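chain below, 324 aa
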Amino acid sequence: MIPGRKQTFIILFAVAVVVIAGIVFYIGLNTSGNNITKGIGNVSDIEVRAVYEGTVQVPEIAMETTLPKVSGKIMVYKANRELSEEEIVKIAEAFGITGEPIKDLGMMFIEKEPFSISAEPSGGMITYSNDTTVPGYNNEYLEKYLPTDEDARIIADYFLDSNNLRPRGAKYSHVNHDIGYFGDISKKQKVSESINVWYIHEIDGSLIFTDKMYVQVGVHGLVNRMFRKWTESEPYREHPIITPEQAVEHLKKTGIVMLGNVKDPQKATVTSVTIGYIGETQTKTLPYLIPVYQFEGVVRGADGTEAAFWQWIPATPELAAEIT
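prediction:
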């Protein structure tokens, strides 16, 4: 691989990590020897907080959704996200990519133009790319030869299954479109368009919020790219869980993470509360999949401006003492 192309891979992979991971708040996890503190007695004595530069306090938090029903305990899982060199080479060979593996900055690259595999073995991330040069298209051509969303999903499912790339727990989520325009966007003259088929990771019916996978389908049904960031897991042990009502109270103390600019935020309206898991923070990967409540909604400013917001609140008392 020529140096310039390798650098391009590194940059693209880093961008993909940021985009797929999203905005993640920092939770200071202290896992000495990967041991979890036992014996937390009174949940009300535990101060749960999220430490993140973008967290803001809002005078009023309102609920416009029902809270999830939870039992008194939840399973915590050991996380395994390592990809071996043998696994990566095997995936590459399945696509006929037989170039010499190159390792650089914790990443691994295998290329046989126009195809390539790039991976971060320690992070469980792998990308397949088909960089075949294609011409610019127009609206009429794209309308005729770009698959429908339904067909794109069928193509993506077949791609994953036929190449043994579908991981355990993968579930179809949604599709979105990447569109390139010529000149003035308002004129809507397209020159490119592809469909991203997204998958989520579920474990015992709960989402792993930090895992993502998508297959990008282009004109004529060609798979241009596949990105996968996945965590394998095994049960560790059950831990007590705070109630959704307690999580709401912690949210009021913690504040929210806004996904946009709102001047003088006054009211945050929660429209969704979900319990799931995270496998990483802004600064590190975690040895466990840690249960959290995910809050989402809309925040409104004093001048009427609005933006989406979210926040994660640790759900397990025994872990909350160490991860906040």
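The helical segments are 3-21, 85-94, 139-145, 149-162, 244-254, 317-323. Residues 3-9+81-233 form one domain.
thats it, cya
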